[in-house]
DNA sequence: TTGTAGGCGTTATCAA
DNA sequence: TTGATAACGCCTACAA
């Protein structure tokens, strides 16, 4: 740095008071301060454009003003909008967010968490990979405030903010059923340990049993979203399996995108050849004729609520873990509506 | 925190050496350290799961290991992918990124920058709003390493990583011209002070002069992307203005999305009623029949290069500012290809 | 090869 | 109403 930043000592000497008084001023404790000194201090601070050093503050006070956020994939709209919700909320309350991207890699997740803690973040908002539960619980036991965003832990032993996955999945399958589709392909990435995928998968099976009276497993397709060709093949096979109106449900936005690509590759017409539904309304779903039926998640609000809960917990870490489930919205469009009778 | 974290003192006492030695160990200066003490220290550190406090480190050494990143809108794929590029690159080199979202608001931009500096970030990567040039230059003069990502400053007085906007815009208009479109609407948000918008706008005008021999201003439409209805009206007016094949160019991804929505609202057929091109290939452009012609920007790489340049500059802040222009790609799809002769 | 001591910029506890 | 002074956890001359 060319020009060295002014420190509290410099302010003190120019204002002709001790640094204790400056510190009081900085922390808004004017109770016993004469108006005169207060004004003098303010003048000096403005003059120097003095700003306290947060590292020093944090070191002394154990309050860094930093909140760590881990997301699985910042490149996906879900994560980035969630991050925005967190950021806006934290800013308003005097916190800065440090964001790290785990790429769904449990090892990266651990490394980043360690590093965030080294930077003395006051709390953590985690979109978990699902493979570090024990590690997270240790941290909790060490007293670090943690909120789990979007993907719950199986045990729910941490504060969790998510959306009503089971309900919406069921409702969507029922919608397809009521529209007269006679079978539904469930298109998903490997479940890995991702709890939302798991819940959606299980709910799908349940809906198949209760509505179609079948074991849904035969309609489940595990795919790699980047390999549209294979997906197209699988889809073809699904369609040829039986006659009658068929539909598909994509487990998340990335998968839905692949699904629509595969449909285009096969030159299928929605909903006649295949009814289409799935997770994540990312702006383009309405544009693809005849409009894709999607479940729109409250990502921004998940971010906001996670941040609020975390900040609460930073102030008082005693409360029992709480589960907050925010509602998603099923947006029905042409791709799942059969106009034939 | 329930269990207090171990400090360097604790490690020192358990390892029966002074904290100087521990500090040496932590910083990898084993040159004059006996193998035995080294092992002993390692054992104690593992045993305690000791990790140094970054705040204390940064306070003393003036190296926080933090890099600040400001983006205009983290919710847009452009920003979030850029952020990912920055994050990946920084992580590999031992830096953490603090990300802040300015919402294109110059005041927020200033506030965030101040706050990042309070946290002693070692450098800044900024997707500038374009209205804080003086402020940024002051910071530069104070010795803070800064890289401008995507949106250049008019004066180029800072390191800049961006893409070849002028070239790609010109090439796209020429493509439309060569396809026999007789006029081109330029759909844009308010330029504000956003340099990329400005450059694209100016290039459009230039292309109009050189190719069509007209003043392109009459074909420029300033729109609010969230107001699809108005855009549809304007588009209608543009189409009715004259006969002959007409096309449109959207200045960025957000605008392109609105444009396509408006086209759907008006029930226009691409490319017969309107040829469509524009910035940002965000995954869905290929899905909308007949496929939308887009310019795909190297966002990830802009992030990577920005980070690399910044880290270089953190090490040596003397070099003259450099402009790095990365190539974008024009992806021609059905929306701009006239198959009639 | 290792240790002593002082300081980084704050905050907090006393005492005045 | 204000000020000395001692931390916070680490790094680094300098000394041994």
UniProtKB/TrEMBL annotation, chains A, B:
GO MF, one example: DNA-binding transcription factor activity
Keywords (A to Z) from UniProt: DNA-binding, Transcription, Transcription regulation
SMART domains documented for this protein: HTH_LACI
Domain HTH lacI-type: 6-61
The keyword Metal-binding appears for this protein: no
Domain of life: Bacteria
SUPFAM superfamilies per UniProt: lambda repressor-like DNA-binding domains, Periplasmic binding protein-like I
Stored Pfam families: LacI, Peripla_BP_3
This protein's name: LacI family DNA-binding transcriptional regulator
Organism field: Alicyclobacillus mengziensis
């Amino acid at each position: 740095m060319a020009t060295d930043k002014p420190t509290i000592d410099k302010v003190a000497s120019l204002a002709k008071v001790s640094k204790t008084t400056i510190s009081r001023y900085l922390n808004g404790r004017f109770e016993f301060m004469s108006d005169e000194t207060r004004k003098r201090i303010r003048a000096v601070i403005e003059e120097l454009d003095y700003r306290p050093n947060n590292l020093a503050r944090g070191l002394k006070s154990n309050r860094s003003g930093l909140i760590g956020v881990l997301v699985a994939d910042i490149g996906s709209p879900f994560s980035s909008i969630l991050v925005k919700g967190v950021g806006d909320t934290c800013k308003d309350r005097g916190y800065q967010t440090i964001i790290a991207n785990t790429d769904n890699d449990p090892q990266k997740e651990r490394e980043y968490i360690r590093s965030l803690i080294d930077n003395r973040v006051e709390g953590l908002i985690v979109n978990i990979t699902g493979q570090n539960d024990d590690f997270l619980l240790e941290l909790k036991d060490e007293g670090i405030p943690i909120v789990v965003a979007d993907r719950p832990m199986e045990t729910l032993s941490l504060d969790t903010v998510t959306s009503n996955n089971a309900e919406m999945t069921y409702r969507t399958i029922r919608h397809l059923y009521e529209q007269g589709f006679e079978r539904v392909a469930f298109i998903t990435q490997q479940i890995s340990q991702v709890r939302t995928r798991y819940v959606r998968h299980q709910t799908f099976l349940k809906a198949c049993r209760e509505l179609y009276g079948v074991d849904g497993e035969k309609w489940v397709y595990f795919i790699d979203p980047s390999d549209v060709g294979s997906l197209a093949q699988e889809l073809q096979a699904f369609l040829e399996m039986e006659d009658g109106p068929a539909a598909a449900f994509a487990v998340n936005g990335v998968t839905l995108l692949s699904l629509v690509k595969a449909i285009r590759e096969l030159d299928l017409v929605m909903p006649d050849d295949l009814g289409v539904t799935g997770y994540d309304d990312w702006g383009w779903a309405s544009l693809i004729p005849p409009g894709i039926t999607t479940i729109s998640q409250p990502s921004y609000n998940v971010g906001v609520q996670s941040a609020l809960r975390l900040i609460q917990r930073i102030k008082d870490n005693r409360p029992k873990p709480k589960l907050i489930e925010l509602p998603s919205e099923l947006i029905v469009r042409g791709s799942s509506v059969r106009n034939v009778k």
